[in-house]
Write a structure and sequence with these properties.
The protein has five helices and nine strands, in the order αββββαββαααβββ. With 191 residues, it is α+β, with helices and mostly antiparallel strands. The structure holds flavin mononucleotide.
């Protein structure tokens, strides 16, 4: 049986070659402190041969990552008509990994990360002009390094579900893979 994560990596690569906008993206769902679902699009990266995402600790989702045993990750690759749903255990990345990756960020997101120290991500702001003024005034260190609040999480899949809409005879092909002590166990699901 093909390793589901190898298959996922290969299909994301194929989607990338086809210019698929979702090849590098996913939606990550968490549960808020109030017990409500929350979902947002994040760039899904491969970091040290593991899946990972970069966030900022001032955003509510960072706390949700830190306090969740698993988060739900979804991506649909339209160029291949394949959906992946993963249940992943989040593990905080070491600061040196985050800080090295942070240096690759474009200028505005870097500045934004420093703004979060005084204006937490996802907090309200009076209007857009106030936001742009605050961004302009954001305290940047010299040399420019990542703030302490720049964070990353490895996402280690415990289950992987692949749904292929191009299954034989028009019947979708849906398989779930569960991580077990001796490898991945495949189960065929009614699509
Ligand atoms: C294409 C795309 C990529 C994004 N990538 C990231 C990302 O890698 N990290 C991140 O924190 N937010 C990213 N965002 C913004 C999030 O979707 C979200 O709006 C923001 O993180 C605030 O979410 P929160 O209120 O749940 O914390 C991205 C949004 C889009 C549309």
């Amino acid at each position: 049986m093909t390793h589901p994560l190898v298959c996922f990596a290969e299909e994301r690569e194929r989607a990338r070659e086809r210019g698929d906008a979702w090849a590098n993206l996913c939606a990550v769902a968490t549960v808020t402190a109030a017990g409500e679902p929350a979902v947002r699009v994040l760039v899904l990266r491969e970091v040290d041969d593991r899946l990972g995402v970069f966030v900022n600790d001032t955003s509510p989702k960072a706390g949700e990552f830190a306090h969740s045993e698993t988060v739900a990750v979804l991506t649909y690759l339209p160029s291949l008509t394949v959906q992946y749903r993963l249940q992943c255990a989040p593990e905080r990345m070491p600061p040196e990994t985050v800080h090295a990756a942070w240096q690759m960020r474009p200028a505005v997101p870097k500045r934004m990360d420093w703004l979060y120290a005084v204006r937490p991500q996802s907090s309200p702001v009076a209007d857009r002009a106030a936001l742009l003024d605050a961004l302009e005034a954001a305290p940047l260190p010299e040399p420019l390094v990542a703030p302490e609040t720049a964070a990353g999480y490895f996402l280690d899949p415990v289950t992987v579900e692949r749904l292929d809409l191009a299954g034989d005879g028009g019947v979708h092909d849906r398989r779930r893979y569960r991580r077990a002590p001796r490898g991945w166990v495949e189960t065929i699901l009614v699509p």
